[in-house]
Amino acid sequence: MQHPWDRDYLPREELEREQVGKLRRLVAYVRERVPFYREAFERSGATEADVQTLGDVAGLPFTVKDDLRANYPFRLFAVPQDEIVRIHCSSGTTGRPIVAGYTRHDLDVWSEVMARTLHQAGVTSGDICQVAWGYGLFTGGLGAHYGAERLGATVVPISGGNTERQIALMQDFGTTVWMGTPSYATYLAEVAEQMGVDVRALPLRVAVLGAEPWTDRMRAEIEERMGIRAYDIYGLTEVIGPGVSAECECQSGLHIFEDHFLPELIDPETLQPVSEGKPGELVLTTISKTGMPLIRFRTRDITRLHYGRCECGRTTVRMERVQGRSDDMLIVRGVNVFPSQIESILLGIEGVQPHYQIVVDRQGSMDDMEVQVEVEERFFSDRVRELEEFSRRVRARIESTLGLRVHVRLMEPGSIERSTGKAKRVVDRRRQQ
Fold it and tell me: Is-contact 373 345, C-beta < 8 A?
């Protein structure tokens, strides 16, 4: 019997022939069924006949998040309502919610790619998977749930929060795989230590983490404190949810499931293709979806792509961990700043904890940035000079990397608000003025 993950080893020529065929059929499909795309293709003049190679995708129109908002809630659906069996959507905190509709075929694809995601992390049917992403309209919990079930694993659908109960169930059930956000994983480890529970002594062996940017230094911190291996996964509601790409045992990039998602990388300013290995904005076309397929969706996520064969033997393209978002990037006094840059600097300094917040304000016409970061208890002694010296060192490391003057405030352990979902890393008060 062939497993779905066998497709991760297809020769690239065979994979690319399949992608071209799917892309051509998708163009015809949306031109016929979705008024938004019919009009977009009429304006561009492109048709399915123009798709002869993968490079021809560059001639197709883009889709951006505002297009989804403008067609809220169901005008991008490509099938009648009675063929949509599931709806997920974003919170809408930054505008109209983003809605995604799924047919039974789409849910089957989603379960398959999440099963492949977990398989790459070494999860098997013998594992007990505790899902700590939220269930409901957010895609994280249900995506992980059905993927683990498709794999045959035992699912514990605890959702987010209830941290002490999370730890109790890990002890009682012998949880071997934990899934959630990386910031929640660090909080979980912290609470376990406060409870006197040695997570390293539990059966837990794997964490599958995503839904927010994180760094290799944070991975090392989580792996050390929990005695596990931590794997990064990537996805977004507009495209399918979690399961667009995932790390394998080599932890050297996230394999994109290219038989379902066609990736490109573009310069977010010029919109021109970016060479392999160079940073750019990830653009995805959903070549298998039927409910709400998207052509060239601009994710705004900044990454790099690598097409060389991975040491694991898989042939699918790998994307590097997302460095930030082109629309979430902070511009402070003309300098581009990604929160992940600052996290990487902080976690490389001994004595700094993985809890921080960036506060940007404006004094008169001048931007002002403060980095608040928790440090170990030992720094808060009577020796003020030692604390000041450490603050100066942290500030110097940040300023030398960013080329930007910043303020640093050292915080006592536990003083920055914790999250059981996505951590709030940036407070930009300029937007409130």
Answer: no
